[in-house]
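Async update (no meeting this week)

Hi team, since we skipped the sync, here's where things stand on the single-chain job. The sequence we agreed to prioritize is pasted below, unchanged from the tracker. I ran it this morning and attached the output directly underneath so nobody has to dig for it. Comments welcome in thread, and please keep replies under the output.
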Amino acid sequence: MFINRLAIAIIIVSFLSLGVFQSSFTVHGQTTTAEASSLFRPLPFEDAELGRNSHAYLGRIQAPTEEEREAFVNEITEYGIQASKQFGMPASAIIGMSIIESGYGTTRTAHFANNLFGIKVWGFNPANAWQLKGQPDEDLDRDIPIIANFGPDRIVFDETQRRDNWYRKFDSYEQSVQFLTGTLLVNQRYGFAINNYQKRIANGWDMKDASMEYIYEIANAGYNHLGGDYYREVVGKLMDQWDLYRHDVMVDEKEDESPITGIYHTVVSGDTLWRLSIHYGITIDAIKSANNLTSDILFIGQVLIIPVNDPVVTEPIVTEPVAPTEPSEPQPEPSEPKPEPIKEEPVLEPQPVEEQPKQEPVVEKTRGNGNNNGGGNNGNGNGGGPKRR
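Output:
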């Protein structure tokens, strides 16, 4: 009986290693049938001998070419400048973070989910998410069932029972940057760094020094579990290499545009652009234009500016209660060692003028900044392998 089970297990692993059971993936907006095993180092369920859980965080086997790197930086530069003008953080920091977190777009999450920053959606099979199979167990509250253990860092987990390796799936790199800058980095945890950055610039700081200090502050606030000194160093090298500071714009050098006035609205479950346009009495295009939206997709916790002179007094938007897709993650006691949450929601923004209905928050986070290794052997400042979990 044991021999029969072993034979079946070997057959299953063989098929998985060949990509037989792998479905099509969305790769930066394009459909492909390429198997993960042909692009990336093997995972434990793909290769019992060579596959390792730490491989889940590494970039693809083939390092990006110089042309690919330039194309990636040029594309992200546009989105970084847009975020800088809209939210006030340094464009150089956003571009540098995109490079180090995704290895120029070569990590699995970047390749298959357009997720450049390892932004998680904790839950059991949550909507609009992609599962990074084979990664180490990061659930601090429960043990993931183990199917097979081939030795240290070579464990096959029961992926159907996991809530700790789902990552938000984006339609494009631009959408990924918009979520990072317009939802995570403007929340209560990291938003202070934007204000400090702008004050330093106004006080005559050099653009480079101010951007480096911004990186240091968000990392120390929890964005990177290795701390501000480490993150400032690795991102700073890339900002120097690509001379990204030239994209930072002084506050008084921004385009002379009339400021958008209105009220803030925090997106809750059930909100759509159409519902918001009816609620506030403005057009969908006006909302998209005020927030530089390129699609109709909204995210829970996203903060929108509604360009109205006076708040429209109407009944609140009523939505049907939605069952949570994930259990709440308990917070540690102050006396306990603090775990390594990096990017998390709920997003706490400036309170809107009009009270919004209370909704269940959605938790977004990454653990240990696993995707900022930048492709392992890709080199050139892309990181040095998986980070300590």
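Quick observations from my side:
Confidence is low (pLDDT under 50) at residues 10-34, 251-257, 310-389.
The chain has eleven helices and ten strands.
Reply here if anything looks off.
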